[in-house]
Structure formats: C-alpha cells, structure tokens
Amino acid sequence: MIRVSQRIAGSFAEPPFYDACREDxxxxxxxxxxxxxxxxxxxxxxxxxQEGFGHGVxxxxxxxxxxxxLAHREGAALLPEGPRRQAAVLAQIAGLLHDxxxxxxxxxxxxxxxxxxxxASFSFKTEEGRWVLTAIGNHEAFTEPxxxxxxxxxxxxxxxxxxxxxxxxxxxxxxxxxEMLRFSKAPLLPLISRFPRGMKGIDKIRxxxxxxxxxxxxxxxxxxxxxxxxxxxKFLEKRFAEELREEKSR
Length: 250
Description:
single chain, mainly alpha
C-alpha cells in the first residue's frame, strides 16, 4: 500500500510551498547538514526515537528541515540574517526532538520533558532552550498552546507546529497511515470503512496553522492529501470489493 499510495501521489504536483520557499528550504537544508548541535540531535534521535507509530526518524528530519525553513522565512520581518539562521536552528532542534515520546499520553509535553537534558547541554541562551522546549510542548493539534513572550520564540514554536501539520497532507496517506497499520497489526477492511470519517478529521487541521506562511500553504498540503486519500480509497474499494461485500453481509 505504501508503493501504491506513493504511485498515486506521484500523479499530483507537489505543494506550492516547495517552490515559494525554495531559498528558505535551501538555507535550512544547509544548516541541517552542518550545524554541530543539529548533527548531535540527528545522531541522538536515531538511538532514542520510536519508529513504530509512523513518526520515526524520517518524519522528524522532514519536520525539522521544514520548521527551519518556516522560521527562517518568518524571521525576515524580525531579525538580521545571523539571528534568523539561529532561529532556524532552534526550530530544527525542536523538530528533531518533538516526538521522542510519541507513544505516551500527552506526548507533546512528555517529549518536551524527555528533550530537556539534551537541550540543556547545548550552548543556547537560557531563553532559547526554553523556546525549544515550549515549541515541543505546543505541537499537539486541537489543544491550547502556551504563548511565548518573545516574537522569535513564538516563531520557533509556530514553525514547528506548522511543519508537523504539513505531514497531515500527502505524508499521512503515503507513509504514516500504513506504518501505523503495520505496527498495530490491525486488519485492513475496518480501515476502509473508517476512511471517509478519518478524512473529515484531517480536514479540520486546515484552519489551525499558526505562521503566516503556514496559513497560506498549510491548507494546500491538506487539500492535496485529501485528493490523494480519495484516490487511495477508490483503489481500496475496488481491490477489496468482494471482501467488503462479504463483510457487509455478515
């Protein structure tokens, strides 16, 4: 299903975010490859991050790069280039560590608590470490986030949230859903019957994006994901038509 879903997704154009924010993504990717503290975090999550919930290393790294790009773009109105790049690094650190406790209740705050010793070991200013941990604690959807008293800190927090919620678009239907199904060993047929209801739930995320860039481009991720999801559902209903009829007749 991952292969089928990715083939279906490949028939659609990628979200416009990747063209509109190309330079910010380039800067973020460069920092991701070179910043010493980011490299330490990248090594640590390979040891500590649980893969079984569809939110493993690949998810964390993608969120980190795009959170860094969002922080860099939003920081243009707030900061000169040096501090702006630092804000991107902070957003990347938050992105790498945001799902350390993905399988636990209230995982955002649990992940922030788990990240605290590592964040404290870095040469961040006190308020920068606080911004990172608050950002991690704030990334849960449909909960009231803690506001920060710094525009830069708020940007870091909002950038992490938006980059994580971009994943509710195409990634949800091409990777996350199937990884979670594989981990849980749940049967496929009940998933098909719940698919439309799940898509309605995902649609609710489109109004929650927090940065200006996220509010512009986030709904495009969600809309694209739902289009891909609709095609996947058609495939599933055709591929398992006989099994669905038998299930319905029981």
